[in-house]
Write a structure and sequence with these properties.
Largest sheet: 9 strands, mixed
Order of helices and strands: EHEHEHHEHHEHHEHEHHEHEEEH
Number of helices: 13
Radius of gyration: 18 Å
Shape: globular
Strand content: 15-25%
Number of strands: 11
Distance between the termini: 27 Å
Mean pLDDT: 95
Length: about 300
């Protein structure tokens, strides 16, 4: 299966890539998009992560604004670097070259599929890059076999009372992707909230002994502290839950549904409406149940293994 990652490169995005590379999953390419932080910070985070963790897949620069031209970041929660930390941060690292995500995605989709090979996109941020592809090259967008997107919410939001961040940051992009009937599989907020990282998970990473153990422990600790600071026992693990569905088809159970998104300028902007009833026209899938223990094991085994290198 051909795999492409579309990301705004926060900590849980980074953890998702480590989960996949730990499992030996080949990644054909990565496109970046503004989201958790502005695009220049996203680019720096991705370049630094690639250098530190030995990623050899190509990375491409995507959209710096939403479809309608605005920019909504999560820096108020995640800090100016788009990643909270209890100590060390990724070193600032500017990419050596500028490479266009739109052109790279087109080239990837233009290549003939080998045998029954599938083209799968793991989307971990706002969907502007995929919306641009759907609008400009619908012929190529139709070649995407699956988009697994960490985004949307069946219940309450996390960026507003009603909206999950990735949906709120660019609801028009989500609306375009849905209107073009791209095969979206949502790993939504409520599902991810069942998989929790706690302070106890940090120690095993910190003592793993590898060259990046302290950095990974500090980033994991900083991420978990977002939840702790709000009176919770830990922090939900978002993007890695989407990533592990590519490795273990049984860890999350999906169901057909109809998905819609509010694109108004009111309080419901970015709210996703999930309707799995038989009377709705299905246009996607959403995660219904997750084996939380299995998910946690897969995620933290990967982080500990990386910290031991």
């Amino acid at each position: 299966m051909g795999l492409w990652i579309d990301t705004d490169m926060g900590f849980d995005d980074l953890a998702s890539v480590l989960v996949l590379t730990h499992a030996g999953r080949q990644i054909d390419g990565m496109s970046l998009i503004a989201g958790n932080s502005p695009l220049e910070t996203v680019r720096s985070n991705a370049a630094s992560a690639a250098k530190l963790f030995g990623w050899d897949f190509p990375i491409f620069t995507g959209r710096e604004k939403a479809v309608l031209g605005g920019l909504e970041t999560a820096q108020a929660i995640l800090g100016p670097r788009g990643m909270q930390s209890a100590g060390a941060h990724l070193p600032e690292c500017r990419p050596v070259t500028e490479r266009c995500a739109f052109g790279a995605l087109c080239k990837w989709l233009e290549q003939p599929a080998a045998g029954d090979d599938k083209r799968h996109i793991l989307a971990l941020g706002p969907l502007g890059n995929l919306a641009a592809l759907a609008l400009a090259r619908p012929d190529l967008a139709r070649k995407i076999d699956q988009i697994t997107w960490m985004g949307g919410a069946a219940g309450r939001g996390n960026h507003t009372a009603l909206a999950e961040y990735n949906a709120f940051a660019d609801p028009e992009a989500l609306a375009i992707v849905l209107a073009h009937e791209l095969p979206v599989r949502m790993v939504e907020l409520d599902l991810c909230r069942k998989v929790i990282a706690t302070p106890d998970d940090v120690h095993a990473i910190r003592i793993a002994g590898g060259q990046n153990a302290s950095l990974l422990a500090d980033l994991t600790d900083g991420y978990i502290n977002i939840g702790i600071s709000r009176g919770r026992s830990g922090m939900a693990i978002f993007d890695p839950v989407a990533a592990i569905t590519l490795l273990d088809p049984d860890v999350v159970q999906f169901a057909n549904t109809h998905v819609a998104v509010d694109t108004s300028q009111g309080v419901a902007r970015g709210q996703t409406h999930i309707d799995p009833t038989a009377t709705a026209k299905f246009n996607g899938q959403y995660g219904v149940t997750v084996d939380a223990d299995r998910a946690r094991t897969m995620i933290f085994d990967a982080l500990k293994a990386e910290a031991a290198k």
